TrEMBL record:
Cofactor(s), names only, from the UniProt record: [3Fe-4S] cluster; [2Fe-2S] cluster
Coiled-coil zones: none
PROSITE patterns: 2FE2S_FER_1, 2FE2S_FER_2, 4FE4S_FER_1, 4FE4S_FER_2
Domain 4Fe-4S ferredoxin-type per the UniProt entry, residue ranges: 149-178
A Pfam family the protein falls into: Fer4_7
Organism the protein comes from: Streptomyces anandii
Protein name: Succinate dehydrogenase/fumarate reductase iron-sulfur subunit
PANTHER family, alphabetized: SUCCINATE DEHYDROGENASE, SUCCINATE DEHYDROGENASE IRON-SULFUR PROTEIN
Domain 2Fe-2S ferredoxin-type positions: 1-102
Listed InterPro entries: 2Fe-2S_ferredoxin-like_sf, 2Fe-2S_ferredoxin-type, 2Fe2S_fd_BS, 4Fe4S_Fe-S-bd, 4Fe4S_Fe_S_CS, Beta-grasp_dom_sf, Helical_ferredxn, SDH/FRD_Iron-Sulfur
Family membership: Belongs to the succinate dehydrogenase/fumarate reductase iron-sulfur protein family.
Length: 249
């Protein structure tokens, strides 16, 4: 395949960015999108140019590092991570636009790399449980009903890639935050921090500068792990419950 790439290039956070055009040839349809970018970077290095900076790690769809807007879609045309997107999703001769996540809370570091540490701070605000130190408890000491376990696991699948934020017209982080809140709040181990968790994580989310949620649903559509939109309404219920309980103290 021969492709034309229009790639966002930005030297650093304070520099002006622009779309640069490159031609790549000999691309196999079985390559992943990131492998295709590797080919582009080899080409740029051989010609003495600065390679395109982009995030990647496991390249197995589980770390959430890869974060690209491809032809206007978070992670591209398939509902998967960028590293698991294959070039057979495109046609020979296509022009492909490659941009970083677009959100005020995700400032560009360089080229296609953005700073997603805002997610880390949201988790630090309350995404943990109180656990006693010492020997591991018996596996069946705290029974968890299967529906609750399934619900928790569904939300635990969130890999924190940020596609929900990039796809949201408001740049909201509600789907990510709700996945982290619901994952722990439904389990008995998460009960001690149930109220403080949702209040602290939502407060931190707002402080980070993410936009407000209007339930457009773009976040759930873009999520490569299928976190459901109802996760947000679940977190809203938890937040109302916590604020009412706090008001009675």
């Amino acid at each position: 395949m021969k492709l034309t790439l229009r790639v966002w290039r930005q030297k650093n956070a304070g520099a002006e960015g622009t779309m640069s055009t490159y031609e790549v040839d000999g691309i196999s349809p079985d390559m992943s999108f990131l492998e295709m970018l590797d080919v582009l970077n080899e080409q740029l290095i051989l010609s003495g140019e600065d390679p395109v900076a982009f995030d990647h790690d496991c390249r197995e769809g589980i770390c959430g590092a890869c974060s690209l807007v491809i032809n206007g879609d978070a992670h591209g045309p398939e509902r998967t991570t960028t590293c698991q997107l294959h070039m057979r999703s495109f046609k020979d001769g296509d022009t492909i636009d490659v941009e970083p996540w677009r959100a005020a809370a995700f400032p560009v570091v360089k080229d296609l790399v953005v700073d997603r540490s805002a997610f880390d701070r949201i988790i630090q605000a309350g995404g943990y449980i109180t656990a006693p130190t010492g020997s591991a408890p018996e596996a069946h000491a705290t029974p968890v009903p299967k529906p609750d376990a399934d619900f928790a696991f569904e939300h635990a699948e969130c890999i924190g890639c940020g596609a929900c934020v990039a796809a949201c017209p408001n740049g909201a982080a509600m789907l990510f935050t709700s996945a982290k809140v619901n994952h722990l709040n439904v389990l008995p181990q998460g009960a001690p921090e149930r109220e403080t968790r949702v209040l602290d994580m939502v407060a931190q989310m707002d402080e980070e500068g993410f936009g407000g949620c209007t339930l457009t649903g773009e976040c759930a559509t873009a999520c490569p792990k299928g976190i459901p939109l109802v996760s947000i309404t679940g977190m809203n219920r938890e937040w109302l419950r916590a604020t009412r309980k706090a008001g009675k103290r």
